[in-house]
Task: structure prediction
Amino acid sequence: MSKAKEKNKLTKKQEMFCRFYVSNGHNGKQAAISAGYSKKTAKVIAMENLTKPYLKEFIEELEQPVLDELGISEDWVLTKLKNYSETNIDDFFDVVDGKLTLKDLSTLTPDKISAVEFIQQDKDGGIKIKLINKRACVVDIGKHFGMFKNVIDANIHSDETKRVYVVPAFNKNKSTAADDLNR
Result:
């Protein structure tokens, strides 16, 4: 029996929720429904379950053997994202006699090649290369390190932790601060 299951005596529904959550790609609402919770309350139950430390620990225990087998770790993911964000289009082209020419792709590192979303040649011989979205990679790295916080847990002159919502003063969709808090 796992530490999380043994320590906190997960209910059968909680255990099933965790197993479905891992197997369905982290869809909390669907995991709750599959585990036997009501469709009407599934979203709320999922949010509640995912805030319980012992359930989060059990989910991690379920996922760890797969990550270990695949050799995937936080370092591996962050390294991949960093490599993608540092790959530039000039890694793929040279300027020879004032003309842009495609480099021999076999001379590029696997990290550079893996940053290519697609490559195609048109009927006139032109080459199009699209790289993975560098901005998204940088944002994912920033999120991993908690650089973009919208909610802050604060303990200000009190024994209780309060949740503080940071609402942007200006936003694109013209919603009000109250609208942002109700999302």
The longest strand covers residues 116-121. The chain has three domains: 3-70, 75-132, 149-181.
